What we know:
Blueprint: H1 2-27, E1 33-39, E2 55-59, E3 67-68, E4 76-81, E5 89-93, E6 96-100, E7 108-109, E8 118-124, E9 127-132, E10 135-139, E11 147-148, E12 161-166, E13 171-175, E14 178-182, E15 190-191, E16 201-204, E17 212-216, E18 220-224, E19 232-233, E20 243-248, E21 256-260, E22 265-268, E23 276-277, E24 287-292, E25 300-304, E26 307-311, E27 319-320, E28 327-333
Amino acid sequence: MTRTLLQMTLLPLLCTIALAQQVAGQDEGEGRMYMSFYYAPPPAEVSRAAPVYQGLAMSLDHGQTWQTRGWLTSAVSAIGVSPDDADHLVLGTDYGVLHSTNAGEEWKLVSGPDMPPVIDIVFDGTVIWAATAEGLYQSVDQGNSWRARNAGLTSANSSYVTGLHFMETSILISTGDGVYRSTDEGESWSPSGLQDLALRGIAVHPRFPEHMAAYSTEKGIWVSTDGGRSWTERNKGLRAPLVKAVVFDPRDRNTLIIGTQIIGVLRSSDLGQTWEQSSGGMTNFNVTTLAFDTISPDRVYAGAENGSFVSHNRGKSWQPFSVRLGYVSDIWIR
């Protein structure tokens, strides 16, 4: 009897705690996805069952349903999301930087007319960094003002910055002239390998950041196991080394997946020493971006030139993910 009364007393409290935890998870944006599009095909070419999205789309249920988030321009290259607030967004576009504090319901163009086309955009705490076709820019005031951060990027192609990643004590950027590193928060830059190579980007393992890959749409992929201080080419077995996206398996430091321009997806379980074709189920083989699900680590998403795909077995096979069409440029998941 005492046990029954105790259970009756605790049950409402436990339900309240569970509900609070669920709401807290929702408030933190768990299950949320953003997908950006660089361009979309003309509506006349698309059936009514396959809506075309431009700019940015958002899902709150891991891609079951989607909604357009306000800015309908094409030419969105990258999504930046504040680490503290999933409603706080910036978009890198061919026209500059767009800023929203309400998950894209309202947008403000925060860069001036002199901002070059933005290729990648990243939050570092409250600071926003924009990698552009003419150098690197930083804003410490929500995009209201921007400062060029290009000291040391003096070669002909080094100012074409395609991606950036923040390490514990340094910043790495990929450029049209290889990898550059800054150890003074972007005040100056020095070469860090693969000079004379036009790179598409850098991918870093989320748990083992000393493992990273630099990749090119013309020359393939290189791997580093020492935080980008040395690089090894890993193109053996790649029939077409036209690499457009790379992601590491968060549960295995040696497994990575690449998306290519012609032959879809390939996987490697030995840091690129060998590759296996892994595009089964795909209908578009120009893969433009890849992302592992942060909640369900067996699930991987792939954006392509005209659509998107999902894998439920860590990239070994795929199925269409949604019916929306367009050139998917970036995928963000919480």
